[in-house]
Amino acid sequence: MSEIKNFTMADLAQHSTRDDLYLAIGGKVYDCTTFIDEHPGGEEVLLDEAGKDATESFDDVGHSNQARDQLREMYVGEFKNDNAGKKDKPGVKTTSKTITTAQSLESGRFVSWVKAFF
Ligand code: HEM
Fold it and tell me: Which InterPro entries does the annotation name (predicted)?
């Protein structure tokens, strides 16, 4: 009966319109459809974040405790970010690969310079 619904990134993205607007904040998913007209910060910012993880933008504003309390009424489930971590890893790999390639290029050049000299 009171089973908790889990939302993946893809599930959340299904609710990204003005008439069906979910946001993920702090690992929880909220149905903000009716709240959109009441938001003191306007509808535009909510529409921008619709169907996404809005944790950062929500925190950046420094919302009051009253704002956080309002969230409770909109709770619909837990956010299971299946993309967590995946985003960063390729970037890190690329960087270290670039450095390695650059370094080996450098030493390669140095070796041929030494060979040419002698
Ligand atoms: C369902 C989620 C949200 C709730 C319940 C909520 C609630 C509120 C409340 C009650 C205020 C008045 C000030 C305060 O009490 O802190 C406010 C202001 C504001 N909110 Fe939200 N908010 C939500 C999501 C967002 C998001 C995702 C953004 C994205 C940037 C945002 C941007 C703002 C801004 C810019 C203001 C300041 C408006 C002003 O001072 O002129 N809010 N919000």
Answer: Cyt_B5-like_heme/steroid-bd, Cyt_B5-like_heme/steroid_sf, Cyt_B5_heme-BS, Cytochrome_b5
